[in-house]
From TrEMBL:
GO biological process, one term: polyprenol catabolic process
Name assigned to this protein: Polyprenal reductase
Keywords: Endoplasmic reticulum, Membrane, NADP, Oxidoreductase, Transmembrane, Transmembrane helix
Family named by the database record: Belongs to the steroid 5-alpha reductase family. Polyprenal reductase subfamily.
Organism ancestry: Eukaryota, Metazoa, Spiralia, Lophotrochozoa, Platyhelminthes
């Protein structure tokens, strides 16, 4: 969560829009449930190899999300990092070559990795985390599909025909 806070404060450039209060409340409740599901897991049941493997996967996915946030922010900044406008532009490069909103896809993979770690440890909390994973999959898939449709409408013929919403080269 510290990475997200720093990303929000130091990297992202937001439009003049605001978040829906219900969506904000769902997000807040969701993170509370994640904490509880992790607290329910019995400690000491994860091997060092599991911890290293899942940490490496998490770091790679988090790096991908950070790169996506940087790419989006760079669309609204000049070469020196100063915000020059708040228009929506078509992101290019990195995972945006394949997906309209890779940060949504990476979020799903982060929670899938977390679920695999917790459920593979034999501890409690895997059931609650499974439901949280389902929530993330539904929420982020819907967001990715809606964003993809928006990009297609907004950018028309300049939108890359081979860019997908959820699965590169497929959907």
């Amino acid at each position: 969560m510290l990475r997200r806070l720093l990303e929000c404060r130091l990297v992202s450039v937001y439009s003049s829009g605001s978040i829906n209060l219900l969506h904000y409340g769902l997000g807040y409740g969701f993170y509370c449930c994640v904490v509880w599901s992790l607290l329910l897991r019995l400690p000491g049941e994860i091997s060092l190899a599991q911890a290293i493997a899942h940490s490496a996967v998490h770091a790679l996915l988090a790096w991908g999300q950070f790169k996506a946030a940087q790419t989006l922010a760079a669309l609204r900044k000049d070469g020196k990092g100063a915000v020059i406008h708040r228009k929506h532009l078509l992101p290019q490069g990195h995972l945006f070559r394949y997906l309209s909103s890779p940060h949504y896809n990476l979020e799903m993979l982060i929670y899938l990795n977390l679920f695999c770690l917790v459920s593979g440890s034999g501890g409690g909390g895997g059931g609650l985390l499974f439901h949280l994973l389902l929530f993330v999959l539904v929420n982020q898939s819907a967001s990715a599909l809606l964003s993809h449709a928006w990009y297609r409408r907004q950018f028309g013929s300049s939108f890359p025909a081979d860019r997908r919403a959820l699965i590169p080269f497929v959907l």
